[in-house]
């Protein structure tokens, strides 16, 4: 028999996720009560417009535009509004009142996480955010709790379903980026303005959260290096397939040694990269997400599942609601975030990685020697080099910043795979190649990850 008082739950936002959270709280009240030891009472839903159409039919009397009044009477506040403001103000208001807060707001956590966690710690409240990264996939709790006694060395993540869907369509169906994006929009995977997804901004926010958690260090969003997929071409995807690889937009969080100082630091970055088709992340298709974790004692771990969707993300939100409710029943203060390692965040230039560089070069004696000399002068070692059959199509000669089109000069294509080197050295070498008289075009530069 349940003896603990009802726990009052306030919901901020009733979009695709919020409406599903509300529905499940109402429909499965008895089941949640048996799990928690107290009944979860949805006391209200704060929205901008109480009359706006919604995916789920919910009691109209639950809706209000007065979020502050709702927050002050709640034990648990679920923030699913998105964006920075007014969400930040409401979350701080809830934490300062002593309420536990559940949020799926990756942008808010990536930009104001330390402020929010400090506010929670000051009053002994708890801030939960399982749904902020990778939707329904449980990744926050494993990093925060299950692997708290281990040493996480690296995270490779496909954490944006829209870009994975697009790149997968390009690989499997042979579509170009624009056609694949149009398909993603038709199916509801991409927003009308897809910039946050295809520009890598969404993945960068999630990388900041994962890196901060995994390495017990605050990693600000502006220290996450970011490239999107807008420059990926059908030719690059085809070449990757021929090489036994696939292109994925990866969020990479890595514990590493600074090559210059020898001190330990961390890196967080997002960019499209080649990954071998035998790697587990290569098998992640459609709009799914996956996070590959490399830990010192636990070894390699993979978390896979739906990265978005109203019902799917609601599952992660409600897992946090149940955890918060159990804490109220059992008692005790919230657990503070662990950011005490305070490791330096290294610039992208310090990262050690590999490149695949595709060049069009003039088909004449001495070209390979010239290219090899440029690579050697840059401190870049060649692992593989392939040369295609020469063509006689018009060439583009790059001289400084000027491009001069040649009338049918014979060219050949070189595909160079490098050994590991510092990003700064690799990038400088690519610039030197572009300025060389023997290179007519650099058609592709992709990093190689996952090995």
Please, how many helices? 14
* Share of helix, binned: 25-40%
The average pLDDT value, as a whole number, equals: 91
Principal-axes shape call: elongated
Main sheet overview: 11 strands, mixed
Q: Point out poorly predicted stretches.
A: 391-407
Total count of strands: 19
Oligomeric description of these chains: single chain
What is the percentage of strand-forming residues?
25-35%
What is the gyration radius calculated from CA atoms? 25 Å
From the N-terminal CA to the C-terminal CA, the straight-line distance is 54 Å
For this entry, give a set of tags.
451 residues, alpha/beta, eleven-stranded mixed sheet, 14 helices
Protein model, in words:
This protein has 14 helices and 19 strands. By secondary structure, it is an alpha/beta fold. The strands form three sheets. Strands 7, 8, 9, 10, 11, 12, 13, 14, 17, 18 and 19 form an eleven-stranded mixed sheet that branches. Strands 3-2-1-4-5-6 form a six-stranded parallel sheet, sandwiched between helices. The model is unreliable at 391-407 (pLDDT under 50).
Q: What's this model, at a glance?
A:
The protein is an alpha/beta fold.
How is this fold's topology laid out?
Layout: E1 7-12, H1 16-27, H2 29-36, E2 40-46, E3 63-64, H3 67-72, E4 76-79, H4 87-96, E5 100-103, H5 106-123, E6 127-128, H6 140-146, E7 152-158, H7 161-172, H8 177-186, H9 195-198, H10 201-214, E8 225-226, H11 234-242, E9 245-257, E10 264-276, E11 288-295, E12 299-306, H12 310-330, E13 352-362, H13 367-377, E14 382-387, E15 395-399, E16 402-406, E17 411-418, E18 421-422, H14 423-434, E19 439-449
Parallel strand pairs: 1-2, 1-4, 2-3, 4-5, 5-6, 8-10, 10-19
Antiparallel strand pairs: 7-9, 7-11, 9-10, 11-12, 13-17, 13-18, 13-19, 14-17, 15-16
């Amino acid at each position: 028999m349940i003896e603990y008082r009802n726990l009052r739950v306030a919901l901020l936002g009733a979009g695709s996720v919020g409406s599903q959270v509300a529905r499940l709280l109402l429909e499965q009240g008895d089941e949640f009560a048996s799990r928690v030891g107290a009944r979860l009472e949805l006391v209200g839903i704060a929205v901008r417009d109480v009359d706006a159409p919604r995916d789920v039919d919910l009691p109209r009397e639950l809706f209000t535009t007065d979020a502050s009044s709702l927050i002050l009477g709640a034990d648990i506040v679920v923030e699913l509004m998105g964006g920075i403001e007014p969400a930040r103000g409401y979350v701080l208001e809830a934490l300062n009142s002593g309420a536990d807060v559940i949020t799926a707001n990756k942008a808010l956590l990536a930009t104001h996480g330390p402020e929010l966690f400090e506010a929670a710690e000051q009053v002994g409240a708890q801030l939960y955010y399982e749904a902020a990264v990778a939707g329904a996939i449980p990744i926050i709790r494993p990093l925060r709790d299950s692997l708290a006694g281990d040493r996480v060395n690296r995270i490779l993540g496909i954490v944006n379903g829209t870009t994975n869907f697009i790149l997968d369509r390009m690989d499997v169906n042979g579509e170009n980026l624009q056609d694949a994006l149009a398909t993603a929009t038709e199916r509801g995977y991409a927003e009308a303005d897809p910039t946050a997804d295809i520009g890598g901004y969404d993945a960068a926010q999630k990388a900041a959260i994962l890196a901060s958690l995994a390495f017990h260090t605050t990693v600000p969003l502006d220290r996450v290096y970011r490239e999107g997929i807008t420059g990926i071409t059908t030719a690059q995807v085809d070449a990757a397939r021929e090489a036994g690889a696939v292109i994925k937009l990866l969020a990479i969080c890595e514990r590493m040694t600074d090559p210059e100082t020898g001190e330990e630091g961390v890196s967080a970055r997002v960019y499209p990269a080649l990954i071998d088709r035998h790697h587990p992340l290569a098998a992640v298709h459609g709009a799914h997400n996956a996070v590959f974790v490399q830990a010192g004692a636990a070894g390699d771990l993979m978390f896979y599942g739906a990265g978005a969707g109203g019902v799917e993300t609601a599952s992660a939100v409600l897992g946090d609601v149940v955890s918060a409710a159990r804490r109220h029943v059992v008692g005790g203060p919230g657990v503070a975030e662990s950011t005490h390692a305070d490791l330096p965040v290294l610039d992208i230039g310090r990262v050690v990685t590999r490149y695949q560089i595709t060049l069009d070069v003039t088909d004449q004696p001495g070209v390979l020697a010239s290219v090899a000399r440029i690579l050697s002068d840059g401190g870049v070692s060649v692992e593989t080099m392939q040369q295609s059959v020469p063509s006689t199509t018009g060439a583009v000669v790059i001289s400084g910043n000027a491009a001069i089109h040649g009338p049918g000069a014979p060219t050949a294509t070189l595909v160079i795979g490098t050994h590991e080197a510092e990003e700064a050295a690799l990038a400088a070498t690519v610039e030197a190649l572009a300025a060389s008289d023997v290179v007519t075009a650099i058609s592709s530069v992709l990093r190689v990850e996952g090995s």
